[in-house]
Amino acid sequence: MEVKLRSAKWFEPDDDTGFQHRAALRSEGFTPEAFAGRPVIGICNSWSELNNCNVHLRSVADAVKRGVWSAGGFPLEFMTISLGEELMMPTTMLYRNLMAMDVEEMIRSNPLDGVVLLCGCDKTTPAQLMGAASMDVPAIMLSGGPMLRGMWRNRELGSGTDLWKYWDERRAGRLGEREWRELEGCYSRSAGHCNTMGTASTMTSLAEALGMMLPGAASIPAPDSRRLAAAESSGRRIVEMVREDLRPSRILTPEAFENAIRVLLALGGSTNAVIHLVAVAGRLGISLSLKKFDELSRQVPLIVNVQPSGQYLMEDFFYAGGVPAVLKELLPLLHADALTVTGKTLGENVKSANCYNQDVICPLDRPLRADGALAVLYGNLAPCGAVMKTAAATPQLLQHAGRAVVFEGYEEMLARVGDPSLEVDASSVLVLKNAGPVGVPGMPEWGMIPIPAKLLKHGVEDMVRISDARMSGTSYGTVALHISPEAAVGGPLAAVRTGDLIRLDVERRSLELMIPEEELNRRLANRRPAPRRFRRGYYTIFLDHVLQAHEGCDFDFLRAQPGEKPYEPQIGRS
To answer: What fold, for 38-148+190-350?
Structure first.
């Protein structure tokens, strides 16, 4: 059965409106033969010179166009806002939902039959998935790929992970100004996103695991010519997907999300992926509970040896076989019959995949660790849950009790953590409040609280740290994050005081404030909320509608309702 093109509503009518739409394209120099009767493919580009991770996506888009033209489609590139981790303040997470709305509305309001989503930096991938899932026209995703490894004095440098290590060396006085400046020039030596298994690499890998990206496309290094070949192939494939009417709702099923969670755990991937997967699923009316992540974590071993949970970098991961090799190894644990953008099942896609380096991608029966990469904690401090990347934590600290050292906010933490007079020792539990979705707002990556300077100088490398913030996927340490509900909305974290005993027991999935329940309730009842700082603009929308971390931090009005279908615009005069 021939699929009726969505774009035909714009271009086929023999009236003044159809005339106007056709004339608009002819004003760009296109002849009617270029677009008449062809699937119109939008190339949704998150390119920006304010986003170094995605700065090469214009050339990737050109390669996609080659593929679209060769398959008989008509490509039209459009830009959305671009979320770059390095420069945007206070956090790109504040704008993920705005970008998702931008993507959704650009698809809805324009004559597009299918869309290629060009992503890379952390939040661009989930934002595009969220928008495309809500609009539900045929869509395929392609990332810009990870940057090349950094090199300094014959030492490899991993994005983020090595930065934090060398910054601690600098703070401890063991790294001089000259070395620090040299590092800065060696750290990022190409376009592309982080070359560790941070949030960007995690989310692009999970897009492939979800079935929304061509097999093997996630981890090709950004400068590699195979990145452009994958772009051309993606352009050809989206035209075929339009003709097959293969939409995200057929691919992004509950089984696909379970596959993605299992891959997240096998990768030792970013804790941020928990929030993003919950949000994407919510756009399809699929409920992903934190308990599902914890349940699967007890079943799936860590098999990918990439920083920060391991040793290697994303180049090594790609050369070892990338996501297809991981999927092939995990196949006994996956829903192999899940449909993908190829039109084939996940199992069919990876049947010929190979692993070329078992030090990087370990066999399932010889994992890096067998007991899971993530844990979800509950208790009187986290009634709705908190997340910890156990794969990047210190084993001796996974059962720990210590006195709280409390920072009421980020600025206070920065002012005090380097103070030699700070009353803290290696057994203390560092607590950061008011850094959640509402508290900042936006839930920045402030959860890896720096080790106090005076402890660094005595060789302390890790401590238990808890907060309602997130942390970079490139970070490491014994850090409990995403505490929900957050302090700023009256969550129990708001009641913690310096000197309180906090007990962490990861085996029992417990995070407890060791005070009587009556005292906890009394403190919360006497809490004085901070006055609202924002009264207009996007910040107001965010504060009024953002959900808590365990619900994916999406806006309440963007989640799918039962039986709801995407609405189409009325076609007429502008």
So the answer is: Rossmann fold (3.40.50)
Q: Which pLDDT score, from 0 to 100, does residue 1 have?
A: 62
Identify which of 435, 567, 491, 437 has the alpha carbon closest to the alpha carbon of residue 96: 437
- CA–CA gap between residue 504 and residue 313 (Å, rounded): 31
SS3 535: coil
Report the SS3 class of residue 38.
Answer: coil
Task: Decide: pTM greater than 0.85.
Answer: yes
SS3 at position 205: helix
Q: Supply the CATH classification number for the domain 375-525.
A: 3.50.30.80
- pLDDT number for residue 76: 98
- The whole-number pLDDT of residue 565 equals 83
- Cα separation, 394 vs 391, in Å, equals 8
Measured CA to CA, the distance from residue 572 to residue 574 in angstroms comes to 6
Dist CA 192 CA 143 (whole Å): 9
Q: Would you mind telling me the total number of residues written for the chain in this entry? A: 574
C-alpha distances in angstroms, 284 versus 10, 250, 417, 540, 569? 27, 10, 43, 26, 20
What DSSP assignment string belongs to 243-260? Answer: HHT--HHHHS-HHHHHHH
**Cβ atoms 74, 38 nearer than 8 A:** yes
Q: What is the pLDDT of residue 530?
A: 86
Residue 228, number of CB atoms within 10 A of its CB: 17
Residue 554 to residues 18, 279, 567, Cα–Cα distance (Å): 37, 6, 20
561 Cα distance to chain centroid: 24
CB 110 within 8 A of CB 137: no
Q: Within a 10 A sphere around the Cβ of 499, how many other Cβ atoms?
A: 11
Q: Where are the domains of the chain?
A: 38-148+190-350, 150-189, 375-525
The full DSSP string for 423-472 is ---TT-EEEE-S-STTTTTS--S--SPPPPHHHHTTT----EEEESS---
Q: What residues in the chain have per-residue pLDDT under 70?
A: 1, 574
Q: What one-letter code names the amino acid at 218? A: A
H or E element, residue 69: helix 57-70
Distance separating alpha carbons of residues 82 and 53, to the nearest angstrom = 10
Q: Do domains 38-148+190-350 and 375-525 have the same CATH topology?
A: no
Confirm if 319 and 359 have CB atoms less than 8 A apart.
Answer: no
Cβ atoms of 425 and 455 closer than 8 Å:
yes
Residue 102, token pair as written in the block? 């931008």
What is the C-alpha separation between 161 and 158, in angstroms, rounded?
6
